[in-house]
Specification:
Distance between the termini: 36 Å
Strand content: 25-35%
Number of strands: 5
Radius of gyration: 15 Å
Family: Belongs to the MINDY deubiquitinase family. FAM188 subfamily.
EC number: 3.4.19.12
Order of helices and strands: HEEEEHHE
Number of helices: 3
Largest sheet: 5 strands, antiparallel
Structural class: alpha+beta
Low-confidence stretches: none
Function: Hydrolase that can remove 'Lys-48'-linked conjugated ubiquitin from proteins.
Keywords: Hydrolase, Protease, Thiol protease, Ubl conjugation pathway
Shape: globular
Domain Deubiquitinating enzyme MINDY-3/4 conserved: 5-103
Mean pLDDT: 82
Strand order of the largest sheet: 1-2-3-4-5
Number of domains: 1
Length: 108
């Protein structure tokens, strides 16, 4: 029988399969599980266990950013900005969210 702690986690945890690799995306704020207002700006951590990742990535997610703010920063001559696969996976839960890698180069 599955314990109640596994059925109802105390912290948000997502197991991910990004580009065929398994990883974990987690938060340390339990309010993300029960209070939709806490989903405006919050922090998530990403760990893939892959050799190229030397430390857990700290990500800041902003679900109320405006798509036109990001478009203004892009070079108008560029053919379009490609987003890392992890950012696209995050956007399956929070559509239109911006993801800040907080100084870490996006590696996934």
């Amino acid at each position: 029988q599955v314990s109640p702690g596994l059925r109802t986690p105390r912290l948000p945890v997502w197991l991910c399969s990004v580009l065929g690799r398994h990883s974990v995306l987690f938060g340390t704020d339990s309010r993300l599980l029960s209070d939709w207002k806490s989903e405006r700006t919050f922090h998530l951590y990403f760990y893939s266990g892959q050799q190229e990742q030397t430390q857990t990535a700290h990500l800041t997610i902003d679900t109320h950013s405006h798509h036109w703010e990001e478009a203004q920063r892009e070079d108008p001559c560029s053919p379009g900005k490609r987003h890392p696969a992890l950012e696209m996976a995050i956007r399956t839960k929070w559509a239109g969210a911006t993801v800040s890698w907080n100084g870490t180069d996006p590696f996934f």
